């Protein structure tokens, strides 16, 4: 979900940009053949997700990629956690933002199977709808993700706590099944768009995870190949 030419200065996804509908505008302006959710569809998705909260109270949001190092929403606290049944993968092709139509990039999604360590953000229930509206404006634009409640596991979160995770929609037009770490690295090493390069996205995610004591060996192997490709 990210925007146009690599020659311009990268645009940062700030809170203000999200409030102004920057992501939606960027995608519709690009004229890419991707379905774009209407404001009503997006709001309905958020309301349905919040209504399905397993236990009432503050809302936890699971971050596994750029939300870790650039959340752009207000939160009470954040904790490293583990989820099961999903793994972090470069499985979403992006022809804008971190790539172009001529040279699409790749960004992360949660695909089925395995487990994933990431960061859980706790959002005050009174502010949840307003704050998560910004997240929905960022993640739920083209229908590439499916928001769902997943169990969060960690010593610093109460047992049985659930959080919202953006899992990949395998029916999305830009979902891609990963081939090899070498091919993934080749794409990441060469793709760049209005939000910056895929390379920066990868390394920012690795550094964000490391800030919470999390090492993702899959991402680190890809990063090593990216460095070799550009060296």
From TrEMBL:
Entry keyword annotation includes Transmembrane helix: no
Entry keywords, A to Z: Lyase
UniProt xrefs under Pfam families: ChaC (PF04752)
GO biological process terms on file: glutathione catabolic process
GO cellular component: cytoplasm
Keyword hit for Lyase: yes
Class of the enzyme per the UniProt entry, highest EC level: lyase
InterPro entries named among the record's database cross-references: ChaC (IPR006840), GGCT-like (IPR013024), GGCT-like_sf (IPR036568)
An example Gene Ontology molecular-function term: glutathione specific gamma-glutamylcyclotransferase activity
EC number: 4.3.2.7
Protein name: glutathione-specific gamma-glutamylcyclotransferase
Species of origin: Microvirga makkahensis
